[in-house]
Structures are given as structure tokens and as C-alpha cells.
Design brief:
This protein is mostly helical and about 180 residues long. The chain has one domain. About 45% of the residues lie in helices and about 10% in strands. The chain has a 3-stranded antiparallel sheet. Strands 4-5 form a two-stranded antiparallel sheet.
Length: about 180
């Protein structure tokens, strides 16, 4: 199965840049959890297809892609970024909006609760968490599937080329005297 994005670094750099745009610091372990969750939600919502070529393990601190973790150990690398498809950008924005206020510990706890039946998650022995396991964790059951489905904002482009988010209009509420 061909991933939607050519490298895991493209996704990691997108999350780092998105955190910087929100003027927040993205801890290395939180970044790893976000990468894991993005891969898991994508697999659950796209019939098991991977978002990125990645290898995830779970240790005492939570999930991580050891290659990306080590490469980003000294900060954001200076590398050429591949442009991401609009549907991938929409998906990543939705993942970011869903989990941006959670810290690494809370994200790890979420992953552990979802992976209660997965040996690699429960043992925390650095064994691989397969894409199939991720799909089971975040896509099992019809009620779970709808609950875990990541739906992002609708993105569009103005006549000048600026990216905008399309949201439902609702009129302003009138203030009542009282």
C-alpha cells in the first residue's frame, strides 16, 4: 500500500510548523503521539492505507517512530519539504485541532486505553505497533468509527490564492437588557 505522503518527516515538520504558527512549543514526545494518532486515524478512515511510511514502537514514555525521534533530537532539520495534498492538509489540520490542547501524557493515556487489547501497546517493550493494530484501535465498531473519525474544516482558496477555512455562518446573538 502506497502512503499518502512520501516521508514521515513531511508530517513531523508540518506539525512543528503548525505549533509555531500557534506560538506554542511542541514537545518531542507530544510530536511522536501526534504522528502516531495521525497514522492511526488515517488508517482507520482510509481502509487501512498508511498516511506516511512509518515504524512505530511503544516504550515506557509512549509511542514513537525511532527514526524520526532521533533525527529531530537536535531540533528541526534543514531539509526541503514536499508539498502536501489538500486532503492531507485538511486531515492534519483536523488532527491538530482535536489534540493541540492535550499534553504528551494525556495523548499516551488515550493510546494505551485504545490499545488495551494490543500486546505491543500494553507491554511497552519497543515492539512494533502495526498499521493493522492502529486501524483496529481507532476504527473498530460502527459507533467507535463515527466517534473517532477525523473531520476537518473545509479549505478553499480565494481569488488571490490565499487559503481560507469555510465555516458555517451563524448570526450574532442580540444582547438582552437585563
Amino acid at each position: 500500500m502506497r502512503p499518502a505522503v512520501p516521508t514521515s518527516f513531511d508530517i513531523a515538520i508540518w506539525f512543528l510548523d503548525r505549533a509555531r504558527a500557534d506560538d506554542t512549543y511542541l514537545q518531542p514526545r507530544k510530536l511522536q503521539c501526534l504522528l502516531f494518532l495521525a497514522q492511526a486515524h488515517y488508517a482507520a478512515g482510509h481502509e487501512g492505507w498508511p498516511l506516511m511510511p512509518a515504524f512505530f514502537v511503544v516504550d515506557d514514555s509512549g509511542p514513537l517512530d525511532p527514526n524520526v525521534y532521533q533525527a529531530l533530537q537536535n531540533g528541526r532539520p534543514n531539509m526541503q519539504e514536499n508539498p502536501l495534498a489538500p486532503d492531507v492538509l485538511k486531515f492534519l489540520e483536523a488532527v491538530w485541532n482535536r489534540y493541540k490542547y492535550s499534553d504528551a501524557l494525556r495523548l499516551d493515556q488515550l493510546i494505551v486505553r485504545r490499545g488495551i487489547d494490543e500486546v505491543s501497546v500494553c507491554n511497552r517493550d519497543q515492539s512494533e505497533v502495526t498499521l493493522t493494530a492502529m486501524q483496529r484501535m481507532f476504527g473498530a465498531g460502527s459507533s467507535q468509527k463515527n466517534k473517532n473519525r477525523i473531520v476537518g474544516p473545509t479549505l478553499a482558496e480565494t481569488a488571490t490564492g490565499r487559503k481560507v477555512t469555510i465555516t458555517k455562518w451563524s448570526p450574532a446573538r442580540k444582547k438582552t437588557a437585563g
